[in-house]
Automatic annotation (TrEMBL):
<dbReference type="InterPro" id="IPR051822">
    <property type="entry name" value="Glycosyl_Hydrolase_84"/>
</dbReference>
<dbReference type="InterPro" id="IPR016181">
    <property type="entry name" value="Acyl_CoA_acyltransferase"/>
</dbReference>
<protein>
    <submittedName>
        <fullName>GNAT family N-acetyltransferase</fullName>
    </submittedName>
</protein>
Length: 210
């Protein structure tokens, strides 16, 4: 029997959640499924998609706690361009040292290592109207339980309070469930140049997209 959802709560993330963020990111990095078999180093996905947000933008980092266990997270930044600058200054150098001797042995290693070595910048056409972005992942035990919507809405409220005009999210091409999820939350498909992107204007900025 699945535990009752009432035992869960959303709380601000803290530094001690870093290990859980690494683990959750790995367990959901295959289009929402467990990617443990795809990475030689279990921290590779988290180096890219979870822990830097906790370290560099803790004000927009929340976790889903089931008792004492962290089982999900939602992470965001208000200014993607500035975040990418900060990654290059303070985050990527230490990660590159950590993976310097890691050979690409598993299916997704080479792609992750390339992304760490030469990160792609977000396109300006996207950031003009949607400067913020977010990531959310929840372990299977709480997927499709309504907590994802609550977590995203909490983050949207926080970004709106920070006067952010819009937010975007990048999706795995095979994650059809994520497309439906964001569409139901009012995000629009703004995909371009082979990238699957969904975006939404925040309160007070609707209809102002350039």
């Amino acid at each position: 029997m699945m535990p009752r959802s009432s035992c869960c709560r959303i709380r601000p993330a803290v530094d001690d959640d870093a290990d859980a963020l690494f683990d959750i990111c790995l367990k959901t990095a295959d289009a929402g499924a467990d990617a443990s078999a795809l990475f030689g180093d279990p921290r590779l996905p988290g180096y890219i998609w979870s822990v830097p947000y906790l370290k560099l933008a803790p004000e927009f980092a929340y976790v889903l706690a089931d008792g004492l266990r962290t089982i999900g997270y939602v992470l965001a930044v208000a200014d993607t361009a500035r975040f990418e600058d900060e990654l290059e200054k303070t985050w990527w150098p230490q990660v590159r040292r950590a993976v310097a001797d890691l050979p690409p042995r598993r299916p997704n290693d080479a792609q992750a290592l390339e992304r760490i070595a030469a990160p792609r910048r977000s396109p300006q056409w996207l950031l003009t109207d949607y400067p913020a972005h977010l990531h959310i992942n929840i372990l299977p035990i709480r997927q499709s339980s309504g907590w994802g919507r609550k977590m995203v809405n909490k983050t949207l409220d926080a970004l709106s309070s920070a006067h952010v005009p819009g937010v975007h999210v990048g999706l795995h091409p095979l994650n059809e469930r994520a497309r439906s999820f964001y569409s139901h939350l009012g995000f629009e498909n703004v995909s371009r140049d082979g990238h699957i992107l969904y975006a939404r204007r925040l309160p007070g900025h609707e209809g102002k997209a350039g």
